[in-house]
Amino acid sequence: MSALKDSDREVYEIILSESNRQNNFLELIASENFTSQSVMEATGSVLTNKYAEGYPGKRYYGGCVHVDEVENLAIERAKKLFNAEYANVQPHSGSSANMGVYLAFLNPGDTILGLDLSHGGHLTHGSKVSFSGQIYNSVTFHVDKNTGLVDFDNLKKIAQEYKPKMIICGASAYPRTIEFEKFRDIADSVGAFLLGDICHNSGIIAAKKHPSPFPFCHVVSTSTHKSLRGPRGGIILLGKDYENPFKIVAPKSGRIKMMSELIDGAVMPGIQGGPLMHVIAGKAVAFKEALSDNFKNYIQSVLDNAKAFEKNFKDLGYNLVSGGTDTHLVLLDLQNKNISGKQAELALDEAGITVNKNMVPFDPRSPFITSGIRIGTPALTTRGMGFDEIKEITKMIDLVINNFDNEKVISSVKNNVQELCNQFPLNL
Ligand SMILES: *Cc1c(COP(=O)(O)O)cnc(C)c1O
Q1: Residues β-bridged to residue 168
Q2: 106: helix, coil or strand?
Q3: pLDDT tens for each residue of 161-213
Q4: Which of 123, 228, 118 is nearest to 168 (CA)?
Q5: Contact residues for 385 (Cβ-Cβ < 8 A; gap 6+)
Q6: Is 153 exposed, middle or buried (0-12, 13-18, 19+ CB in 10 A)?
Q7: CB within 6 Å of ligand 1 — which residues?
Q8: Quick one: 271 and 305 in the same domain?
Q9: pTM score of the predicted model
Q10: Which domain range does residue 408 map to?
Q11: What's the gap between Cα 55 and its chain centre?
Q12: CATH number for 364
């Protein structure tokens, strides 16, 4: 960063501080990760200079020969990684990918059905503060109070009552396997269309350690920066349904449009202008990495580490939503621990441990306070941490939670965090 250091000291110093923070804190936010040096080089490259509205071979601008090459590479690798027949790699984020899907297949006012935000769903699954709950008529299903698992009876009842045009499966804070097949059965029973939003699990799915959304989901969206460990961005995928006419007739020609055409048109020009070609190059690099055996081993460690958290926290008397995890995250319900999610997040942050407060199902507290915290393993695992470190980190979290207003305890934990981080440098 020598040019930046000379030209803009303020931004340079901020980036340096953030780099130090990433090095010296334990990153347990389930949606975060550390992408590779190669991904960062591609993302920081000259490709940021190029306008390329349109798609490979069909651009609105000249000079697109090389960005066409890189976008085609990203598309081919994404298809291979997820066994998909079609990929659109242009969405700027997971939310944009969802917005593209909605614009492609829904009309304003159509009914959509997604998992309640406070039960693990995402803002874009119909929350009233998001476009998804404002443009569309959103209704929600929930998890079972006793098991913490998706309540398929409730889902079926709501689906039959509201006859949604689209059902969304996938979540941001759901520690268990997404049962795509069961969702598809219910979608079929009411003639709904099924979107699999695999933002959180995409790395686990890519490594074939979580069931594939295909052939059950009609369309799949994901971000690329979570367990998949790529640059910040999104993609949309179609399986064998990609050639199906979605019974939308082009006004002029009277031709029936394919699902893939609808998605292409919805992403650009529907919701976006020029694609971020530097980020698309970063996605291509990340997809190649994710196709390797190394990545499979990495994801296995992510899952093993989450299981280790599950066991350690249970041994210490913690309640876990759904009783445990099948994925990269655990959700601690702190209602028996005399501390809110917000207090836990703040105290842990002071101790150098980064987590996020999170609603637990049927939470009596507000989303700003909450009764839980969400803990994920993708970032720590990328750093190389394993069983021994997870054990030590569990003890540190427990100590902070039990002594959240004790400065002395918190600063001694902070010292231990620093020692642990020094043993696993990030080399940022
Ligand atoms: C993270 C997430 C998103 C949104 O991704 P952004 O890149 O933050 O816009 C959408 N859906 C789910 C389920 C997510 O977890």
Answers
A1: 195
A2: coil
A3: 999 999 999 999 999 999 999 999 999 999 999 999 999 999 999 999 999 99
A4: 123
A5: 305, 393, 420, 424
A6: exposed
A7: 31, 93-95, 98, 122, 124, 170-172, 197, 199-200, 223, 234
A8: no
A9: 0.96
A10: 301-423
A11: 25
A12: 3.90.1150.10
